[in-house]
Write a structure and sequence with these properties.
This protein is an alpha/beta fold and 377 residues long. The protein has helices spanning 3-6, 17-30, 70-86, 114-125, 154-164, 181-191, 284-295, 314-320, 335-340, 350-362; strands at 8-12, 37-41, 47-51, 59-63, 91-96, 129-133, 148-151, 171-175, 194-199, 224-226, 232-234, 237-238, 244-245, 263-265, 272-280, 300-308, 325-329, 344-347. It is built from ten helices and 18 strands. The chain is globular.
């Protein structure tokens, strides 16, 4: 394809090897050249972007993977989008396979919904559309004031299961928590396999204990007083300061949650256990789940996840655990982690990203990319 006549350009928003490699795979499939730009950090760590060719009146696709330095990657994307906007690009579409801060999409006590802030920043910088993959929560799409195409990696992971696990018919899909049961059910139905759910595992970082439900005072004043009628009344909820909240109204006591003992709903004995999730970062929950499944008789344990963040000492923990294999996509750079842990395998999803770019540019329907995929996937 002649780049000058294609009407669109594809740029890489950072110079890391992983992002450049993914961008090259996408442009090779599209038959276009990668746009000429320079993205670098000044000596004081400020981000600078120089676009080396004219983009006036064209549709621009910016590919940005999110390495360990998340905040630098975000600034690179923002600065490049703004540079293209001021260079009179017609449309600026971000291709962000893993959307950062997606776990911070709910209010926690006195925190903030950072994901909503990032969506507003991207719109302000000039983005008019984004392509992403497996958002942590589907509702995140509502944070944006422009269209969002949330692609799915499950067809590629299912294909890996069918082609790389010879006896996968003897497998069972496992949800490591009840919250992940819908995703696991979607995989189980398409693979025609059984489903198991682990219940009672240790709470993760998204614990209900952090959502503010324990912030109101739980002490109530039950001392009554006798009025002129002789009846005993309640004085309401007493605050630590001694003042009363809603005098005359008594709120019910808030009962603390207690975790039940760990149980596995479903028979995993003598089966291959395949745990599916969208993100694998802190692997403590996955390692604990693998140990439980091993105790229940599973003879092989696979982890299937879209985004392999694998932070901190995750590779070492995986290598020392009962997990046989961790399969992730190349939405996030993880070459260093693969060198540290041979159990980590990668599935390439550049094909669907390239097809999404082609269809958006040509004004074609995106429905083909979501065939046979349920909302809960």
């Amino acid at each position: 394809m002649n780049v000058a006549k294609s009407g669109y350009r594809v740029f890489s928003a950072n110079s890391s090897a992983a992002c450049t490699e993914l961008a090259k795979k996408i442009t090779e499939r599209l038959g276009v050249e990668l746009g000429k730009s320079v993205v670098f950090q000044e000596s004081n760590r400020e981000t600078r972007v120089d676009v080396k060719e004219s983009v006036r009146g064209q549709t621009i696709f910016i590919i940005q993977t999110i390495p360990r330095d998340v905040n630098t990657a975000i600034m690179e994307l923002l600065v490049m989008a703004y540079a293209l906007k001021t260079s009179c690009a017609k449309n600026i579409i971000g291709v962000i396979p893993y959307f950062p801060y997606s776990k911070q999409c709910k209010m926690r006590k006195r925190g903030s919904i950072v994901c909503k802030l990032l969506a507003s920043m991207l719109a302000k910088a000039g983005l008019t559309h984004i392509i992403t993959m497996d958002l942590h929560q589907k509702e995140i799409q509502g944070f944006f004031s422009f269209p969002v195409d949330n692609l799915r990696a499950s067809p590629f992971l299912i294909q890996y299961i069918q082609e790389e696990i010879p006896d996968y018919r003897n497998a069972i899909i496992v949800a490591k928590s009840p919250a992940a049961a819908k995703r696991a059910q979607s995989y189980a139905e398409r693979l025609r396999l059984g489903l198991a759910v682990i219940h009672g595992e240790a709470q993760c970082s998204e614990s209900d204990m952090a959502d503010g439900r324990h912030s109101p005072p739980s002490v109530r004043n039950t001392t009554g007083h006798t009025g002129h009628t002789g009846h005993t009344g309640h004085t309401g909820l007493e605050l630590p300061s001694g003042k009363q909240l809603f005098p005359g109204i008594e709120l019910p006591m808030m009962m603390a949650k207690e975790k039940p003992p760990i149980t596995v709903v479903g028979d995993v004995g003598g089966r291959i256990a395949i745990i599916v999730d969208d993100i694998i970062d802190d692997v403590g929950d996955f390692v604990a789940a693998a140990e439980i499944l091993k105790e229940r008789g599973a003879y092989k344990i696979f982890i299937m996840a879209t985004h392999g963040l694998l932070s901190a000492d995750a590779p070492r923990l995986i290598e020392e655990s009962a997990i046989d294999e961790v399969v992730v996509t190349n939405t996030v750079p993880h070459e260093v982690q693969k060198l540290q842990c041979p159990k980590i395998k990668t599935v390439d999803v550049s094909m669907i990203l390239a097809e999404a770019i082609r269809r958006i540019h040509n004004g074609e329907s995106m429905a083909y990319l979501f065939r046979n995929i349920t909302v809960d996937d």
